[in-house]
Amino acid sequence: MSLDALRESLPAYAKDLSLNLSSLAGETLLNEQQKWGCFLASAYAAGQADVIRALEDAPLSPEARTAAKAAAALMAMNNVYYRALHLMQNPEYRALPSRLRMNFMASHGVERVDFELWCTVVSAINGCGACLDSHEAELRQRGMINTHVQAGLRIGAVVNAVSRVLAAERAAQGAA
User: Hey, how many other C-beta atoms are within 10 angstroms of the C-beta on 145?
Assistant: First the structure.
């Protein structure tokens, strides 16, 4: 499935999402790897099959494709863990080592700023404020400006919304 076919598969009530997909595909604030990595990482984070298939052929190198998927995988784990630590009242948990493997974060094969952007976008989808703050601070330290981060967040928001609409439509069809 292509991005255009994905847009056409959306119901009429989600026309704004279709239009947003189209405009974000033409986004120029981010470079192509950053942009399409945001799309792919967001699709994997949201986990809806049609969206993943539509974005699987995003114009990314094999290394960037793997890194975007890994950002979604690692943040699926980290966002739960660090969100829990953030929400828990007892500060003793924050002093304990996580003891979770995250080796790929140091050897992902793409520019560090790109990987951090993808982690930020996935953390937004997963709702982890602690990880959002951590990765956004790393992006700022590496020179990324807020409008570029916002562009990534917009991609994540739209891909997540498209995924939810298609999952709901599929569920409604199964219930009928």
Answer: 10
DSSP 81-105: HHHHHHH-S-THHHHS------GGG
Tokens 């974060």 appear where? 105
CB 147 within 8 A of CB 97: no
Tokens at 144, concatenated:
């990324």
**E-strand spans in the chain?**
none
**Is this model's pTM higher than 0.85 or not?**
yes
Domain boundaries, the chain: 3-175
Alpha carbon separation from 36 to 60, 94, 101, 152 (Å, rounded): 7, 34, 26, 10
> Is 128 designated active site?
yes
pLDDT in tens, 71-97: 999 999 888 888 888 888 888 878 777
Q: Which of 40, 41, 128, 139 is catalytic?
A: 128
Active site residue 119: no
Q: Which CATH superfamily is domain 3-175 in?
A: AhpD-like (1.20.1290.10)
If you search the block for the tokens 């199964």, which residue do you land on?
174
What lies within 8 Å, CB to CB, of 105 at 6+ separation is 74, 115
